[in-house]
């Protein structure tokens, strides 16, 4: 199993550009989520999905869209990039969204918005 | 106030020392996770606890639900243990099932 994969690893955008961060998992996990990690702060939840066709907002959803058309893929779209979205983004998955399942994280995408 | 507080924020130890990292939380939880973030950025799950104690190799995690506190211990520390250790909890209140609340992490550096 490849686990959770993310692409790209690094990305530089200009303010106003849009882009999609890709996330895929091959473990047949129902629950997938996107986090951002900023210096001096804990990981913060952007969006999550409890299964194909179901998504919901997390703590910091503004400026981001997600979709979940398949169990495997959970892309994160930046609609109009802003410098405040400079961060490291992690995708994670688990078997289900309840308490007793291990979270598996992707390697992260480091995004810089100029 | 942060719902999950870790201490210390930074910790430097000599190889071989016994290390303790603490996590306190203010919400009712159904489970607590300890994660390790390597210097290269990758995050791996170390433990998932809802009560008692778990051990894996040189790592031991304990939780006291009544006191809302968990500790991560590393015995016979080694430079390869150098990483950021992150505590995360699943709240039983509000939000959506399955979402984690993260602490800011403890950066551990073990010197040879």
Throw out a few tags for this protein.
heterodimer; A: 114 residues; mainly beta; 7-stranded mixed sheet; 4-stranded antiparallel sheet; 11 strands; 48% strand; globular; B: 112 residues; 6-stranded mixed sheet; 5-stranded antiparallel sheet
List the uncertain runs of chain A: none
Percent in helix of chain B? under 10%
Helix segment count of chain B?
Answer: 0
The number of strands of chain A is 11
**Strand coverage percent of chain B:** over 45%
Protein chains sharing the most extensive interface? A-B, 30 and 26 residues
Content of β-strand of chain A: over 45%
Q: What's the rounded overall pLDDT mean of chain B?
A: 92
Description:
The complex is a heterodimer of chains A (114) and B (112). Chain A is mainly beta and 114 residues long. Chain A has strands at 4-7, 10-13, 19-25, 31-37, 44-51, 54-57, 64-66, 76-78, 87-94, 104-105, 109-113. The mean pLDDT of chain A is 93. Chain B starts with a strand and ends with a strand. In chain B, a hairpin with a 5-residue loop joins β4 and β5 (43-49).
Helix and strand arrangement:
The complex is a heterodimer of chains A (about 110) and B (about 110).
Chain A: E1 4-7, E2 10-13, E3 19-25, E4 31-37, E5 44-51, E6 54-57, E7 64-66, E8 76-78, E9 87-94, E10 104-105, E11 109-113
Parallel strand pairs in A: 2-11
Antiparallel strand pairs in A: 1-3, 3-8, 4-5, 4-9, 5-6, 7-8, 9-10, 9-11
Chain B: E1 4-7, E2 10-14, E3 19-25, E4 29-37, E5 43-49, E6 52-56, E7 59-64, E8 69-74, E9 83-91, E10 100-102, E11 106-111
Parallel strand pairs in B: 2-11
Antiparallel strand pairs in B: 1-3, 3-8, 4-5, 4-9, 6-7, 7-8, 9-10, 9-11
């Amino acid at each position: 199993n490849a686990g959770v994969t993310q692409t790209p690893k690094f990305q530089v955008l200009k303010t106003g550009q849009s882009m999609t961060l890709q996330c895929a998992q091959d473990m047949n996990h129902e629950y997938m989520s996107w986090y951002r990690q900023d210096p001096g702060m804990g990981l913060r939840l952007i969006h999550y999905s409890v299964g194909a066709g179901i998504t919901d907002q997390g703590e910091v959803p503004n400026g981001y869209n997600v979709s979940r058309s398949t169990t495997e893929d959970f892309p994160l779209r930046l609609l109009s990039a802003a410098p405040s979205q400079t961060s490291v983004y992690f995708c994670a998955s688990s078997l289900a969204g309840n308490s007793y399942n291990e979270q598996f994280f992707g390697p992260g995408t480091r995004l810089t918005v100029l | 106030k942060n719902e999950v507080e870790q201490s210390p924020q930074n910790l430097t130890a000599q190889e071989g020392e016994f290390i303790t990292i603490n996590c306190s939380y203010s919400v009712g939880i159904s489970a607590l996770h300890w994660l390790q973030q390597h210097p290269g950025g990758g995050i791996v799950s170390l433990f998932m606890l809802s009560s008692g104690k778990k051990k894996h190799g040189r790592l031991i995690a304990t939780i006291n639900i009544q006191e809302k506190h968990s500790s991560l211990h590393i015995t016979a520390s080694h430079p390869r243990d150098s990483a950021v250790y992150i505590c995360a909890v699943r709240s039983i209140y509000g939000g959506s099932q399955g979402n984690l609340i993260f602490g800011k992490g403890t950066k551990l550096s073990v010197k040879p």
